[in-house]
Design brief:
This protein has helices at residues 2-21, 23-55, 73-84, 97-106, 111-115, 135-146, 158-200, 202-210, 215-258, 270-298; strands at 63-67, 89-95, 125-130, 151-156. The protein is of the alpha+beta class. The protein folds into two domains: 2-57 and 162-298, no CATH class; 63-156, 2-Layer Sandwich (Alpha-Beta Plaits).
Length: 302
């Protein structure tokens, strides 16, 4: 066991020393890997923040029904009876024009505007929750209610909810496609770096085989090189994403404040950052393993 640990420690030390001998080439390779990984990681962070922002919106699509300005208490009572008789509604609530004006006055920058009004311009409204929130069913309910007496306007918000969900789904699929493509590029970069190292150490590998070194022993330092290079590349990607979030968060917060929202951008969480590092290290190892295995099959001791 101690011998096995000593071999691995020796391979790791040799790998770090070899990186130190070619600092510029190593740095450029790490930056290339970091930039490639930060693109899908940044897209995942963007989608995560959009999902957080969407979570503050109503999760259940609703139908808003606005009464005419001349609607009286009898019209409102008749409307309530009609809604109670419908079996395709999960529930509904009434928002009077007084409540709507009070809610509007509490919003930032609206108090002075509402204070100068001589009369309440807002109508009485009903917020309906359909039993089935699919677009076809909501469109049918909205079309039916539009023909009722004293109904001025009906708004169906299922369309924007479906569009938002579709856009988020498209973004996630795009992020996965981008991650797969750039992960493949990372494997190629790591494999190419290892292949160049093998070519420069061809005679050393041949001598090692002549004195009885196994392929596993020869392969070990190259695998460590791929893992360490991928790990540093993943760390670079995490730093790029973290710095980008820090730079963009003040402007995003200012924009959110204009809409009275405390929204702030968040970066990668600890588990997500560790997953990024592990993925980068695994891809670096895979590229090194493929390159060194192929090269060793082509190298025979003379």
């Amino acid at each position: 066991m101690m011998t096995w640990l000593a071999h691995h420690r020796q391979a790791l030390v040799a790998t770090l020393a070899r990186m130190g001998k070619t600092p510029f080439a190593t740095l450029f390779a790490i930056i290339a890997i970091g930039v490639a990984l930060c693109l899908p990681a940044g897209l995942f962070v963007l989608l995560h923040n959009i999902t957080r922002l969407a979570a503050d919106l109503p999760a259940q699509p609703e139908i808003s029904v606005f009464m005419r300005q001349d609607a009286n208490d009898a019209d409102i009572a008749s409307m309530r009876q009609r809604l109670q008789a419908r079996t395709d509604l999960a529930g509904f609530r009434f928002v009077s024009r007084t409540q709507a004006l009070a809610a509007l006055s509490k919003q930032a920058g609206m108090n002075d505007l509402t204070a100068g009004l001589s009369a309440n311009p807002l109508p009485d409204a009903w917020i309906l929750s359909p039993a089935q929130a699919d677009a076809q069913n909501m469109a049918r309910i909205a079309a039916d209610i539009r023909g009722w007496p004293q109904v001025a306007q009906v708004q169906d918000d299922s369309q924007w909810a479906q569009r938002l969900t579709a856009l988020l789904g498209l973004g996630r699929d795009l992020a996965w496609v981008l991650a797969i493509l750039l992960g493949t590029a990372l494997v190629a970069v790591s494999g190419n770096t290892i292949r160049l190292q093998i070519l420069t150490r061809r005679e050393e590998i041949e001598v090692s085989r002549l004195i009885g070194a196994t392929d596993r022993y020869i392969r070990r330092p190259f695998l460590y090189f791929g893992v360490v290079q991928g790990l540093f590349g993943g760390l670079t990607a995490w730093l790029i994403v973290a710095v980008s979030v820090l730079l963009l968060d003040p402007q995003a917060s200012k924009l959110a404040a204009l809409y009275s929202s405390p929204f702030h951008l968040t970066g990668l969480e600890l588990v997500e950052a560790l997953a990024l590092l592990a993925t980068a290290a695994a891809l670096g190892w895979l590229g090194a393993y493929l390159a060194v295995s192929r090269s060793l099959r082509l190298i025979e001791p003379r």
